[in-house]
């Protein structure tokens, strides 16, 4: 049998139950368990179903349909049947935002926890999680230069160079390089989400094919780790009026995970950079049911470094340069200043049409100061809209300065062209932020003896 959509919705309205969260709470279960119970492949557990009809004050026959009834009747009414996405229109992503923190700076792993990372890039997240105490058993990455960087610095890591779409489609356990057979503790990755299409999302994985969230979801279902860590740009929270994040949360719940998220600023975690990222943590449902300690995000550090703290002794390295025309303009900008410090005519000529557009545009012709953290680094040090000029010299930051700002260790070398090195560093998760996230996850695993 399956549970009829209209019957449940009508019963909820009569009882003034407006959301899935409220119904789940009354049932004494989480939203993921409720979604499973309402899916068309669910074999009802008697106690839960009886509690459901008691709360909704309906007869059992009033909310179920026998799948063996006349096929014509089934065709006529099938549109009313519940799928796992019954409550698509009323999911509130902000109800998943967790504002609970704990100081985890001294946390050390009680045992060797393992890690599989996707979209590994130059290793920012992996290094930080390694420093926290996680043992990497596989890093998946497509970019050849980034893979060379990983292999050069961590020859003992298992670097799987290839398209994650193909790896996930074929099954990661079928990949010749993935030979690990034990339980996975942590799956991590920062999947790009720019290609999402959100109109009329109703069919789970079918709706996200062609996006890089899809293979991440596939690997999550294949590996079934205890915990997953997903990070992304802050803008994900409100992208497409929140539908993007809502969809991700629903699919994570369908996979059997309870999800929490928050926006973390790297500057709060010993990184000399204002870089805000959304961090999504998912914990497997069976672990939630037995946990003694609830997950908490890492408490911000007291140490708030500025550029003076990290760049004064930076090793010499190759770096990009400005053309003479740009240098003449930036020579007029004081430390901590931007285009507003330029003479009006020079500012108009330099900015072009942007001069008359709305918004602050304070990234244009921006020279940073020794006494402030860097603004968010981009994948190129010369982008006109997001200028990051050196505090004293009229030039972009060098590769090693870029790496310092991202809290990479000085002995971490980057492969590829100069532009590719900047790209690898700019795309990375700051190491110190990644370490703090890793320590918060290890803290959860430690305290629950997992």
Task: Give short descriptive properties of this protein.
450 residues; alpha/beta; 434 Repressor (Amino-terminal Domain); Rossmann fold; DNA Methylase, Chain A, domain 2; 3 domains; seven-stranded mixed β-sheet; two-stranded antiparallel ribbon; 18 helices; 13 strands; transferase; SAM-dependent_MTases_sf; Cytosine-specific methyltransferase
3D structure, described in words:
This protein has 450 residues and is an alpha/beta fold. The chain folds into 3 domains: 2-90, Orthogonal Bundle (434 Repressor (Amino-terminal Domain)); 95-304 and 430-447, Rossmann fold; 307-427, DNA Methylase, subunit A, domain 2 (DNA Methylase, Chain A, domain 2, Alpha-Beta Complex). The chain is built from 18 helices and 13 strands. The protein has a 7-stranded mixed β-sheet with strand order 6-5-4-7-8-11-9, sandwiched between helices. β5 (134-141), α8 (144-153) and β6 form a beta-alpha-beta unit. α7 packs across α18 and α9 runs parallel beside α10. The radius of gyration is 25 Å and the shape is globular. The protein starts with a strand and ends with a helix.
């Amino acid at each position: 049998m399956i549970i009829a959509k209209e019957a449940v919705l009508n019963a909820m309205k009569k009882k003034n139950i407006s959301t899935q969260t409220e119904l789940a709470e009354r049932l004494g279960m989480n939203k993921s368990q409720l979604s499973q119970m309402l899916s068309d492949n669910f074999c009802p557990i008697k106690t839960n179903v009886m509690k459901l009809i008691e709360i909704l004050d309906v007869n059992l026959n009033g909310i179920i349909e026998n799948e063996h009834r006349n096929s014509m009747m089934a065709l006529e009414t099938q549109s009313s049947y519940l799928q796992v996405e019954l409550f698509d229109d009323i999911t509130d992503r902000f109800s998943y935002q967790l504002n609970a923190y704990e100081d985890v700076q001294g946390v050390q792993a009680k045992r060797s926890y393992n890690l599989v990372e996707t979209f590994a890039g130059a290793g920012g997240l992996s290094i930080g999680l390694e420093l926290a105490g996680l043992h990497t058993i596989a890093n998946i990455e497509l970019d050849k230069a980034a893979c060379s960087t990983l292999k050069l610095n961590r020859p003992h890591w298992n670097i799987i160079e290839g398209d994650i779409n193909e790896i996930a489609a074929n099954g990661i356990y079928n990949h010749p390089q993935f030979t690990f057979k034990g339980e996975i503790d942590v799956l991590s990755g920062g999947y790009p989400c720019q290609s999402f299409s959100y109109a009329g999302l109703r069919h789970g994985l079918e709706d996200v094919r062609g996006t890089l969230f899809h293979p991440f979801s596939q690997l999550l279902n294949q590996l079934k780790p205890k915990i997953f860590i997903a990070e992304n740009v802050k803008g994900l929270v409100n992208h497409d009026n929140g539908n993007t994040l809502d969809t991700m949360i629903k699919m994570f719940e369908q996979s059997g995970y309870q999800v929490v998220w928050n926006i973390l600023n790297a500057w709060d975690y010993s990184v000399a950079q204002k870089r805000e990222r959304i961090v999504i943590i998912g914990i497997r449902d069976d672990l939630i049911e037995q946990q003694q300690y609830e997950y908490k995000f890492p408490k911000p550090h007291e140490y708030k470094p500025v550029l003076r703290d990290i760049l004064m002794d930076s090793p010499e390295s190759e770096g990009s340069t400005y053309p003479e025309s740009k240098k003449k303009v930036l020579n007029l900008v004081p430390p901590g200043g931007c285009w507003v410090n330029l003479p009006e005519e020079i500012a108009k000529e330099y900015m072009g049409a942007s001069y008359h557009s709305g918004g602050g545009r304070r990234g244009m012709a921006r020279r940073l100061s020794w006494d402030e953290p860097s603004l968010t680094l981009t994948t190129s040090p010369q982008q006109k809209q997001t200028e990051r000029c050196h505090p004293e010299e009229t030039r972009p930051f060098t590769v090693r300065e870029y790496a310092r700002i991202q809290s990479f260790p000085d002995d971490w070398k980057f492969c590829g062209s100069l532009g590719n090195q900047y790209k690898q560093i700019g795309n990375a998760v700051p190491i110190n932020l990644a370490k703090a996230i890793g320590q918060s996850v290890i803290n959860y695993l430690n305290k629950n003896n997992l």
